[in-house]
Design brief:
The protein has a domain of 84 residues: Winged helix-like DNA-binding domain superfamily/Winged helix DNA-binding domain (Arc Repressor Mutant, subunit A, Orthogonal Bundle), CATH 1.10.10.10. 48% of the residues lie in helices and 11% in strands. Helix 2 crosses helix 5 and helix 3 packs across helix 4.
Length: 129
């Protein structure tokens, strides 16, 4: 995995950038939105498909998607009457995946993502999780 200035050497983080990151976390502090982003990590889906996956009504899912779209976490593509949603970029997928994998460590027993491996440390990003 390629390292950059944010991953190595850690200079002071600009206030505006920190504030934007806080807004992302604020938006992600909702179980339905995490489930929507998790579902979209598998590829683009319609609102009706997302509503079925997360077990919520379509109007509710549409409202969540509108907030995620305004924050540029998801994008929409219209095809006729259908609107397809997808993740805005690979960083959102990684953020949600890492949050879920980290949450598994708080659960009792061996985290599912370790797949029976008895080690206590996760592999590094890109290491075949």
């Amino acid at each position: 995995m390629r390292m950059n200035a944010y991953a190595k050497g850690r200079d002071a983080l600009d206030d505006d950038l920190a504030d934007l990151a806080v807004e992302v976390f604020r938006l992600l502090a909702d179980g339905t939105r995490i489930r929507l982003l998790w579902a979209l990590s598998g590829g683009e889906l319609t609102v009706s498909a997302l509503a079925q996956i997360v077990g919520k009504a379509q109007p509710s899912v549409s409202q969540h998607l509108a907030k995620l779209r305004m924050a540029r976490l998801v994008r929409a593509r219209r095809d006729g009457l259908q609107v397809y949603y997808s993740l805005q970029n690979e960083h959102i997928e990684r953020l949600v995946t890492d949050a879920v994998l980290n949450a598994e460590h708080a659960m009792p027993g061996l985290p599912v993502h370790h797949g029976g491996d008895q080690s206590t440390e996760c592999e590094t990003a890109g290491g075949g999780e």
